[in-house]
What does this fold into?
Amino acid sequence: MTTQERVRLIILELIAVALALLILIPFYMILVNSFKGIRESALFGLSLPSVWEFKNYKDTLQQAHVLRGFKNSFLISGSVVVCVNLFASMIAFVIQRRDDKLMRAIFYTFICGLIVPVSIVPTIKLMGDLHIRGTYFSLIMYYTAVLLPFAVFLLVGFMKSIPRELDEAALLEGCSFFRLYAQIILPLLMTVLVTITIVVMVSVWNDFFGPFYLMTDSTKWTIVLQIFNFVTMYSTNWGIVFAFMVLVVAPILLLYLLLQRFIIDGLTAGSLKG
Amino acid sequence: MKNNKPALALVTLSIAALAAAGCGNSMSNSSSGKSDSSPAPSTAPSSSSAAGKKEPVTLTFVISNTVDAAPYNKIFAEYEKKTGNKVELQALPGGDFDNMMKTRFSTGDFPDLFLMQPGTKQNVKLRAEETLKEWSGDSAVWSRIIPSMKEFQTTTTGKIYGVPFGSIGAYGVFYNKDVFAKVGVQPPKNYDDLIESAKKIKAAGITPFYEGVKDSWPPQIFYFTGWVSNVDPAIKDAGVQKLENNQMKLADIPELKDLFMKQKQIKDLGLYQNNVLAGTYDEMQNLMGDGKVAMAFMLDGIIPQLEKKFGKPFVTDKLGFFPFPSNTDAGTALMTPPNQLMIPTKAKHAAEAADLIRFMISPEMVNLYYQTQPGIPIFQNATSDLYPVQKTVKEFIDAGKAKVNVQNRLTPTFADFQKTLQTFFIDGDVDKALKEFSTNYEKDGKAKLLPGFQ
It folds into this structure.
């Protein structure tokens, strides 16, 4: 490699790094504005606060029901993660291992679910008919239904890379089908399950419309919906809103940072025919 | 191979969690899980139908987020102290509030009580006769409220479905007194006077008017305030009645067209701030407080905002108000009636909700409300420490130079007016904007199946 080429590569690298840093600007803006007073924060500037207002965070936590919102968010997104992982791995196991016409049809049905959008009104009607409207259970099932196709799609792809010889060996040893799934296949799926966990967690945590339309009981509202306690049409203290945003984003950002190396592994798993 | 215990544990744990979530639904809706150990005896100021009840309940109270919830939270804290009943306040986005209420009504998912925009026009949206509690026979309630407000809530058949609560609001021109003093101008005697003053202010290097076009709702204020000063005197109440029945078209009112032309004139003369399309309500407050903007056509919601940002002395000493001037005189002030409290008859705790309303309009609670949020009172013998700006408005009301916002007098709404105005600020086409405004109004009347529109 000549020096010229090396310089070119270094410059390209620097440009790439600078572009990657662009994504941090909104986060920085939220963070820096969360420490500003009512007048300064309304300008949405990127400069450091002239006076550091830590009171915003105190006000946020004192506001009605922030802790309850966190509890609901964790409960709902946690339950959805469990449901999606459990059901999708079972479905994928059966679909991929049987691989007959019926199973293929079921698989394509799930793929359709990736494309078809959610329709809110029939969903509300259905929940009413099932007498589960306004319950945690209804919301958990709604998200599970919405996110299953993606998880099934990912897991079926990955399942192909798990050799059938493992199943055969296990069955010869007298292992039952469920035990085969639970003790042999499931541990091998862990990378993909972590990926699904992150994607599901992030999308449920950040979702606004689901709970907003399907949950009329505000005691079960997630943290994201608590934003209406802070933003009003005619009077908004942006400092407090930004402080609230920091609190809402923090747990999910942390989770993402801790588990993000699995994401790439999981998404590319099964994409290569070995 | 990895140990599979964690996986199994996870599955077990998750099933347990799900079961718990399922059970959580059937639990009582005590929000914090902490039950009141010693509920105080019920002393609600009424023949409480809920009195002697042992189990405290949680009432749901739905409110639009255009309303400041602070005074309500204070009242509800007192209510809880007295009765042990909790009130769960749900703030919904103002833009979708009506639709969300309609949705809840149509799915039978009723809140215990809610705060709605004022007037009998709301009855159509919610099919009040079938769904809402009727109040006209409750003399204890109406003895507390000033007659004009009761009248405003009464239908032609003498029924009342909402109890007014809050204070009389106002729209008009809010201005920075310091700027006026510095430039040497006075509140205008007529519209030409206003434009002359604005030119002087501009010559002094200060922005005369500010318009928050980006936020989309502020530019409408110009027309509502302009309506009571310019359109009302021309078409009178009879004309408004014709609009109500679609016997007259908005596009055929020359004075209304004149308002569009007036707004365009302000823009063409360069009397708005630079890049008016990027204007926001927040920036308006900041610039007005800093004395960089002289005036704004605004609602009185700006008063508490300016107090938060610039302190009480600014609001009491530096903030002024005058109505939108007419072509011949100082104009008419615009009043907005207070919102109304409504109770669905099928609400789970309708009886307790009615008691809560009676509690809210008791003299102590009314005073608490006005302490938290000063305003022109609507209750008998209630006192409120008014801001000077509000005193000015009250003088206009007392002198009979005030009129209720036309939106509160008409059943159809000026649908999508915000969008019309944003486009109008871009292309400046008066005829197009007026036609669109008129057409959208008729469309809304048609959608609501109102007489004369079908």
